[in-house]
């Protein structure tokens, strides 16, 4: 913990999360027992290099302030007399605020006190707590962006995709198995996966680590996060044996982060507004699920866990998606939400690359460009999560 406070007492802190997530760094800071963290960087060295890069990035941001730019109003306020303080506790997607400010009342909804009182949204449907208007906008959005197949899929809404992740684990684990089902993902993976998987020490499932070295016999769940958090690469399943069930976390499969090459067509796909529109506080995610029984069990989990999902949030999410869709059809001066956010990501990546180049201490991943069917241009991925920085020396 001492190291944590050392680093946080600095006036300048390092932005490793370009936008939305700083969990990789956090994991490094909290993992006291381990000398070496991702990328083979020793903790001592990490502290050193964090400080140096914090200075370099701070200088880069000062340069950015001198130019007109599209950066968010609330990302890193200079309330301390010029030094930049960045909260590394969590990535927070407030960077799209400007777009939503410009949308103004178009994204406002009013919910009278007598509305949304029932537990039920659509009592007869498989996901009885899913607001039909929200379901409709999800389908329209995927169609217009072209990033996922929605035909022959059940939509399950969740309190963030974090709840849906747990619902999937519950749904896929046999209730009568003699031992917990193994859950794996290829390293480096989103650092919350193991924590969420094991937090209740479930008898149904258990975190089993890196998918690349997984060789246990029997059934397992493999999480495929594409683009991946934290390194931004497009991913496919890596476990080369039968008995696995794939869960695709597509939180970042949106045109601001990566070219949309084709409509994802997997059995279980997870999405969230926190990464697509920037509305993390709404706590809304959705799953597209092919198998009816799996979808029913996921619904059961959400029922047992929170008896459904906030209707108010779903109605607001429906409105937000409506505005996103209409920004694609009738772009404003900022373009569509995806034009705006893709530009922002491009700008941030170019700043980070310049700063890292100047530091001479790190390397950043290089991505090959791909042709995006939605933005109609070719570009290299510009991931939202933590940039993966490795030691050069
Ligand atoms: C890959 C990935 N999946 C899921 C989540 C969680 O999303 P939500 O805010 O919808 O719970 C995150 C958040 O950082 C993420 O990076």
UniProtKB/TrEMBL annotation:
InterPro entries with a match to the protein in the record? Alliinase_C (IPR006948), Alliinase_N_sf (IPR037029), Ethylene_sulfur-biosynth (IPR050478), PyrdxlP-dep_Trfase (IPR015424), PyrdxlP-dep_Trfase_major (IPR015421), PyrdxlP-dep_Trfase_small (IPR015422)
Gene Ontology molecular function: carbon-sulfur lyase activity; transaminase activity
On assembly, the entry states: Homodimer.
Q: Which residues form the signal peptide?
A: 1-19
Query: Which terms are listed as keywords in the entry?
Result: Aminotransferase, Pyridoxal phosphate, Signal, Transferase
Q: Name one Pfam family in it.
A: Alliinase_C
Task: Give cofactor(s), names only.
Answer: pyridoxal 5'-phosphate
Domain Alliinase C-terminal: residue ranges: 86-383
Q: Name one GO biological process term.
A: amino acid metabolic process
Q: What are the boundaries of the region Disordered? A: 62-84
Its name, as the record gives it, is Alliinase C-terminal domain-containing protein
> Which family, according to the similarity comment?
Belongs to the alliinase family.
Keyword Signal part of the UniProt annotation:
yes
Compositionally biased residues, Low complexity: 72-84
């Amino acid at each position: 913990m001492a190291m944590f406070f050392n680093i946080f007492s600095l006036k300048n802190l390092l932005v490793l999360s370009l936008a939305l997530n700083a969990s990789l760094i956090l994991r490094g800071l909290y993992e006291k027992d381990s000398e070496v963290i991702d990328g083979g960087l020793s903790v001592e060295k990490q502290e050193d290099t964090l400080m140096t890069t914090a200075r370099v990035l701070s200088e880069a941001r000062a340069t950015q302030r001198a130019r007109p730019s599209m950066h968010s109003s609330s990302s890193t306020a200079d309330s301390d007399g010029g030094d930049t303080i960045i909260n590394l506790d969590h990535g927070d997607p407030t960077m799209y605020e400007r777009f939503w400010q410009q949308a103004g009342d178009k994204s406002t909804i009013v919910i009278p006190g007598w509305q949304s009182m029932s537990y039920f949204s659509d009592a007869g449907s498989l996901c009885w707590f899913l607001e039909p208007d929200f379901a409709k906008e999800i389908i329209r959005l995927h169609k217009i962006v072209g990033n996922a197949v929605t035909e022959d899929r059940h939509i399950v809404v969740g309190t963030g995709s974090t709840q849906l992740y747990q619902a999937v684990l519950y749904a896929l684990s046999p209730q009568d198995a003699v031992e917990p089902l193994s859950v794996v993902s290829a390293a480096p993976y989103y650092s919350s996966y193991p924590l969420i998987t094991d937090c209740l020490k479930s008898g149904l499932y258990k975190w089993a680590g890196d998918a690349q070295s997984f060789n246990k016999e029997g059934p397992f769940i493999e999480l495929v996060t594409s683009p991946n958090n934290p390194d931004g690469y497009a991913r496919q399943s890596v476990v080369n044996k039968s008995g696995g069930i794939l869960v695709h976390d597509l939180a970042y499969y949106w045109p601001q982060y990566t070219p949309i090459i084709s409509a994802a067509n997997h059995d279980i796909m997870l999405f969230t507004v926190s990464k697509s529109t920037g509305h993390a506080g709404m706590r809304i995610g959705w799953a597209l699920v092919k198998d009816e029984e799996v979808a029913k069990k996921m619904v059961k989990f959400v029922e047992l866990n929170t008896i459904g999902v906030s209707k108010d949030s779903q109605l607001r999410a429906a409105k937000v998606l409506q505005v996103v869709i209409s920004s694609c059809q009738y772009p404003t001066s900022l373009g569509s939400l995806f034009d705006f956010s893709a530009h922002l990501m491009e700008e941030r990546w170019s700043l980070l690359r310049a700063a890292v180049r100047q530091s001479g201490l790190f390397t950043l991943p290089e991505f090959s460009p791909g042709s995006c069917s939605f933005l109609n241009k070719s570009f290299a991925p510009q991931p939202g999560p933590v940039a993966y920085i490795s030691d050069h020396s």
